[in-house]
Write the C-alpha cells for this entry.
Amino acid sequence: MQPKNIRIKDIATLAGVSEGTVDRVLHNRGKVSEIAAKKVRRVLDEINYKPNLIARTLGTNRNYRIATLMPDHKQDPYWKQSFDGIKAGETQLAQFGIHLTVEHSLFDPHKKESFQEAALKVFHSRPDAVLVAPLFYYASIPFFKELSEAQIPFITINTRIQEANALSFIGQDLFKSGQLAAELISMGQNSNVAFAVLHIDEDLTNSVHLKEKERGFREYFEHPKMKSHATVHTYVLGTPQSSTFRDQLTVILKTPDLGGVFVSTSKAYLVAAAFKNENAAIRIVGYDLIKQNLDCLQNGQIDFLINQNPMRQAKLGIQTLANNLLFQKSTPPLHLFPLEIITPQNVSTYLSHAGNLSGIIV
Amino acid sequence: MQPKNIRIKDIATLAGVSEGTVDRVLHNRGKVSEIAAKKVRRVLDEINYKPNLIARTLGTNRNYRIATLMPDHKQDPYWKQSFDGIKAGETQLAQFGIHLTVEHSLFDPHKKESFQEAALKVFHSRPDAVLVAPLFYYASIPFFKELSEAQIPFITINTRIQEANALSFIGQDLFKSGQLAAELISMGQNSNVAFAVLHIDEDLTNSVHLKEKERGFREYFEHPKMKSHATVHTYVLGTPQSSTFRDQLTVILKTPDLGGVFVSTSKAYLVAAAFKNENAAIRIVGYDLIKQNLDCLQNGQIDFLINQNPMRQAKLGIQTLANNLLFQKSTPPLHLFPLEIITPQNVSTYLSHAGNLSGIIV
DNA sequence: GTACAAAATGTGTGCGCACACACTATTTCA
DNA sequence: TGAAATAGTGTGTGCGCACACATTTTGTAC
C-alpha cells in the first residue's frame, strides 16, 4: 500500500498542533501565534498537501449562486446550444452534490438596452459569480466595473472584452478563424480566383467579431509565401427578408471567377439556398452547427462549417466558476477553443459525440 | 430556498422506515421484508432520488486498482499521448480524493507475444478494472474471456473487438475516417485524378485498421452521386529504412495525374519528406499529431491530418472506469470520437487547447 | 406456552473537511 | 490585585453516504 494521502489530521500530528490550528493556517483565518504558524508551515513545505476536494464540498455547506447572462435563443438559435451547455454543467455538478443555484438571465441579442437592463438585474441580485456573453462592448464595460468593485468573479464567453477584469475568457481566436476559412475556401482552387466575404447580420452587434474574421481571411491571401493573390470582395447584407437581399446575392453570384463565398455569421444557409440551382462549383464556408446549416451541409450545398462548440464552451464556463468558488482553483485567463472543421463527411461524428459527454466526471 | 436535494434520510422518513432499510433497498443488499421494500420503492418512484456522488466516495473507503495495458510509447510515439491521458485522468481523480491505483503495463506494439505476456500478468494481478488497447485480435480474445469470467470490467480503446464483452469501446469510426480522408484529398481536384493509398507499417498489427480506412476511402469515390470517378491505387510499403521503400515512393510519385496521397498510418511525414522537392501539387493526408507530422504540417508539406485525440480518449477511459467503479454509472457501449481535421491554420488552436483541460471537474 | 434461530430493522461510526464554539493563556485596564 | 478583554488553542459537530453491528421482530420446533 502506497503512502496514503495526507490529511489535515496528519499535518496536525506532524506539526504538534491541533487540527484547528492547521485549518487556520491553511485558510489564513488569523488567530494563530507566529510560533505555531511556523511549525505548520514547516510541515506544509516538506509535504505536498493536496486537500481532498470532495471532502471539502461536503464540509462547506454553502449554496453558491451563479448568474448567467446570455442572449435569448428564441431570437437567435445559435444560443440554444450555449443554454444547453449551462444546463448540462448545472445538472452534472448537482450529481456531485454541488448545490449551485444557476439563475439564467436572457437578453435580446439585437437590443443593447435589453442587455443593460438584464445586467442591472443580475448585479442587483448579488450572485456569487457571473457567466456572461457581453455582445455589446460599451454597454458591458460599466457592468464589469461594478462586478469587479463588488468582488464578484465573472467569466466572459464568446466575446472577449480586453478591458474587463474577467477571471477567464472562453471563446475562439476570430482572426485565426478567418485565416482558416481562407485556407479551406482556397484549397485546390486556381490562383486567379475571386472570393466574397458576406456579413449577414440584421444589425451590427457582431461588427467587431465579423471584422476580425474578415481581417484574418484577407491576411491569409496577403501572406508573402502565398502565390495565389486571390481577389477578395466584401459585402454587408441586410435583413434576409428584404428584396434587396436577393438582388444583392444575384449580383455577387455574377462576380467573375467567383470561387467561393465566406459567410462570417451563422447564416450561410441563406446563401446556400440562393445558390442552390445556380452554380455548384462555388464553395461555401460558414459557421455554426445550427439546424439549417446542417441540412445544407448534408446535401452538399455547404462545404465547410467552422464549429465554435458553444455547448462545451458554456459548460466549461460553469465548471470553471464552480472550480473557482468551491475549490479556489485558479484558471488560465484565456481559454481558446480549437477551430473545428466540419464537413459533410465528419459532421455525424461531431453530433453523436456531443451527447456522450453528459455524465462523466471530467 | 428551493427544494433541497433529497437524502437517504428523507426517503426513510417518507417511507416510515429507517435509513438502513432504504440503504438495503437501494443496493439490493437483501434482508428486507417485502412490505418495507414496497414502502421504500413507492417513495423512490415518486421522487427522483439522485445519490450525492461526492458523499458516496467519502463513505466507501475502498481503494480501486485499475490496470492499463497499452503499447509502449518508446516503440511508437503515437502512444505517448495516450499514456499522458491516463496520467492526466489519474491525477485529476486524485485531486478529488478518489484513490485509484493505476498500474501501467506496456507491451511492444510489434510483438504479439509481448501483448500476451503482459495480458497474463495483468490478469493475475486481479485488478478491479482494465483499460486496454487490444492491437492483436486473436491474442486478445482469450484475455477478454478471462476478464469477463472473472467479472472484471474493461474498456477497450483504439481497436474495437466486437466479440469482447467490453464495458465500452472508445475510439473512432475508421470507415468514416477513410471517407473523410477521401473528401479532403479530392476537394477541388479534377475528376480524372488519381490517388494513392499508402499503408506504411513495419508489420501487420494494424492491418484491420488500415483495411477499414481504405474501404471508406474507396467507397467515397464509388458513391453514385459522385461525378468524379477518381482512380485509387493501393500500396503496402515495408520498413522505411529499406532502399525499396525509397524506390517504391519514386514509382508512386510517377503515377499519371497523381493528385494526392493518403497515408493510413501516422507515418505521413516519411512521404512528405520524400516528396518535398518533387511536386508541391500532390496533396498529402495523414493521421495523428506526432512531432514529425506537425513539422510537416506547419511547413506545408502535409495538407491535412486527421486527429484521433488519443490523450482525451485515454483520459476518458480512466474517467469512465472510475465512474463505473465508484458511482455505478452506466456507460454507452460505444464512444466514438469526432474525426478532427487538422490543417496548418488550425493546428495551433488544437495544441493549446489540450493543455487547458487539466484541472477542471469535468 | 418456551427456546432459539433466522429474518428484519434500527443505530452508530467514520470518511476529510469547514466551521462554530468552548476552553486556556496572556494582556490590558481599573 | 482582580476583573475583563483579548489572543491563541483545542474540541466537537455536521455534511451524505456506506457499512458494521446492535437490537427487535418474526418464524419454527418442541
Summary: Residues 358-362 of chain B have pLDDT under 50 and may be disordered. The CA atoms of residues 8 and 23 of chain B lie 7 Å apart. Residues 17-21, 24, 31-33, 36, 55, 57-61, 97 of chain B lie near DNA strand C (CB under 10 Å from a C1').
